[in-house]
Specification:
The protein is of the alpha/beta class. Helices cover 39% and strands 20% of the residues.
Length: 465
């Protein structure tokens, strides 16, 4: 790959998405942003030799992006891509009826659909995301090792970045004569599972830890379903697996006396929590603690998904423990679980990420997600100034990179060149008086003319080069 120079573009630069007109981006052979400058000044005052020699170097591809706004690739921080086979099935059912991992409609669909068909639907969803400017997605993967292999094989030849978070299927392993479909349907399976973990000889704790260790070796961490679907014992087992993994990596570092360059980052642990008010009440009734109180103590995850119905003490606890939050506004809307308390979250200064959640509930469209978020929150707050567009756009780009500790989501030196080319003269955008607001509430797949990942064009709807 040759170096590339993108010139004459309007940029949303850096972690504050600063508007820079007539900007240029130099991308090195590895797809990383090497330098940024305008015709008048450098955007980052470091090495001063690069920009002066760019036009003299015939080994650099020149890309004239006049007429385009360049923004970082969108990061879909929470999605269930595997259930795209079930788009809008039982659309008026509640959360548990549709997506509960033990007895929901989603579980039935996934079990009855052939793997080849699931793979095709996953490919379709991944391509859909790419066409909508999503350059990285974070998938919560059901099905243990088989589920991880399924998605990895499905998107192998699709040039989109993925973070795959697996999970242990306890329900497939633990069986008991006293567990009836009726008790599961009523969501009262936790006590039975606790008895099973204590009494069953089918699988020993070490076997579960070994199973979880194999899962975490094959993906990027754990993406755990709702807290109420797990006993304290189950959550602690996840924690033991992570600690075991970290200890093994530390021992390996000691043996090799190296930083293990080339090995992947520390595994991510994320969990759904406080999505529905009924789930919070169920947790308090069974455990005398909210889902968040339970999981901070037993699991200690890095990231919480939804947090739509937290208590004030829940938010304080998350803040005190430096936890990250990913919200899913449209999914919570279609399931009727409410609006996340964005104002309180921002007062705590959480760096919020955004996800489109289950493909069976929503199209995986971050433009629509941002549009819904800003309008619904202003309606809830009855305030036209609440939640400015830049904050929302940061949730879909900059914050996603921070949450997952990756050099993505921002146009700055040292970050990967994942870029979107937006036609600023499109009929629905022009004239643009507020670029952040125009992108958040007016931009669609149509205005997106090209997608670049790691410095390579992976989608071009019009000729740019």
């Amino acid at each position: 790959m040759k170096k590339s120079l993108i010139k004459n573009a309007d940029l949303l630069f850096g972690k504050e998405l600063q508007i820079v007109q007539n900007g240029s981006i130099l991308i090195n052979e590895h797809g990383t942003i090497e330098d940024l400058f305008t015709s008048e000044k450098r955007l980052e005052k470091k090495d001063t030799t690069t920009s002066n020699s760019v036009n003299k170097n015939n080994k650099i591809d020149i890309i004239d992006a006049e007429g385009f706004i360049l923004l970082p690739g969108l990061i879909n921080s929470h999605v269930h891509i595997g259930d795209s086979i079930g788009k809008d099935i039982s659309a008026s059912s509640d959360l548990n009826q549709r997506i509960h991992p033990q007895y929901g409609i989603k579980k039935t669909i996934l079990e009855k659909t052939p793997s080849s068909q699931l793979m095709q639907m996953i490919r379709n969803a991944a391509m859909s995301m790419l066409h909508k400017g999503i350059t990285t997605f974070v998938d919560f993967r059901e099905g243990g090792l088989e589920g991880i292999s399924l998605i990895q094989n499905a998107v192998e030849n699709i040039p989109i970045k993925k973070i795959v978070l697996g999970r242990i299927d306890f329900n497939a392993n633990y069986k008991d004569e006293n567990t009836s479909p009726r008790s599961l349907k009523n969501g009262k399976d936790t006590v039975t599972k606790s008895q099973i973990i204590k009494k069953s000889n089918l699988i020993e704790e070490n076997d579960i830890i070994n199973q979880g260790s194999k899962i975490i070796e094959k993906c990027d961490g754990f993406g755990i379903s709702g807290a109420n679907e797990h006993t304290d014992e189950m959550l602690r087992l996840y924690n033991k697996i992570i600690l075991k993994y970290q200890q093994e990596r530390e021992e390996e570092r000691e043996r090799e006396k190296t930083e293990l360059n080339g090995h992947r980052k520390e595994p991510v642990v994320a969990i759904h929590a406080a999505e529905a008010e009924t789930a919070v009440m169920e947790s308090v009734k069974k455990y005398k603690k909210t889902e968040i109180e339970r999981t901070v103590n037993t699991l200690n995850p890095d990231i919480y998904i939804h947090v739509t119905n937290p208590s004030s003490s829940d938010l304080q606890l998350l803040y005190q423990n430096n936890k990250k939050i990913v919200i899913c506004p449209r999914a919570n809307g279609v399931l009727g679980t409410g609006f996340a308390p964005i104002r309180k979250m921002l007062e705590y200064d959480f760096e919020l990420g955004i996800g489109t959640d289950n493909v069976m509930l929503n199209s995986p469209d971050m433009f629509r997600e941002m549009d819904f978020l800003i309008k619904s929150q202003r309606a809830v707050e009855k305030n036209t100034r609440f939640l400015d567009a830049k904050k929302v756009l940061k949730m879909a780009t900059v914050n996603g990179g921070k949450i997952f500790n990756l050099n993505i989501g921002s146009i700055e030196k040292g970050f990967q060149a994942d870029l979107l080319f937006i036609d600023k003269y499109d009929l629905d955008l022009y004239p643009i008086h507020d670029p952040h607001m125009s992108i958040v509430q007016r931009c669609t797949e149509r205005q997106l003319k090209a997608v670049m990942i790691d410095g390579n064009f992976v989608l071009e709807k019009t000729s740019i080069r």
